[in-house]
Design a protein that fits this description.
Layout lengths: L2 H15 L15 H11 L9 E6 L4 E8 L18 E4 L9 E6 L23 E6 L4 E13 L5 H5 L5 E9 L9 E13 L1
Parallel strand pairs: 2-3, 4-7
Antiparallel strand pairs: 1-2, 1-5, 3-4, 5-6, 6-8, 7-8
Helix pairs in contact: 1-2
Pfam family, one: Sortase
Protein name: Peptidase C60 sortase A and B
GO molecular function: hydrolase activity
Length: 200
């Protein structure tokens, strides 16, 4: 798959994933027919090489969470972290693992229905140079520094900036944002981070 096609697929997938962020419907996000077709093509693509993340630490906002692997549901929509009392973040496994070249994408809920706050409830409080560490399944770590935190309307999701090709390891943390309404949240909070160090 070409870089452009992969970027379009991942962008559509993660945008769909966050459509119902935080509410009971988050487990079955709506996706357009085009997004479903793209997701179906992605399911046949090879997964990126490298060790998957198993834990994410963001000390500035008190996050210390296991990391699930997210893929595609049977109906072609994107999987999301389950809405449970023990909320966890999820890595979209068709993005590069943290520490590999490209934008690694980790998503989480801001709220989890009847269980209250989600693991990324304070994501918007992060500031430039705050640290983020991903622990990988091979025992190594990848440490990142926040470059930017942005809240954008879902209708204006900056897919090219979030998922576009980059020549170094980067990380994106994504959740919902803005004032909650009966339909969920109108915006996304996006954290852009760059690799600071990798090692054992």
């Amino acid at each position: 798959m070409s870089p452009l096609s992969r970027r379009a697929v991942v962008g559509a997938a993660a945008t769909a994933l966050l459509t119902g962020c935080g509410g009971p419907r988050a487990a079955r996000p709506a996706a357009s027919p085009g997004a479903r077709r793209s997701a179906s093509r992605e399911s046949a693509a090879p997964r990126p090489s490298g060790a998957a993340p198993v834990r994410l630490l963001v000390p500035a906002i008190g996050v210390d969470t296991p990391v699930l692997r997210l893929g595609l549901a049977a109906d072609g929509t994107v999987e999301v972290p389950p809405v449970t009392a023990h909320d966890r973040a999820g890595w979209y496994r068709y993005s590069p693992p943290p520490g590999q070249v490209g934008p690694s994408v980790i998503l989480g809920h801001v709220t989890v229905g009847p269980y209250g706050d989600g693991v990324f409830r304070h994501l918007a409080r992060l500031r430039r140079d705050d640290g983020i560490t991903a622990r990988l399944e091979d025992g190594r770590t990848a440490a990142f520094a926040v470059r930017e935190v942005r809240t954008v309307a879902k209708a204006d999701f900056p897919a090219d900036e979030v998922y576009g090709d980059v020549d170094r390891p980067e990380l994106r943390l994504i959740t919902c944002g803005g004032p909650r309404t009966g339909d969920g949240y109108p915006a996304n909070v996006i954290v852009f981070a760059a690799l600071r160090a990798a090692g054992p």
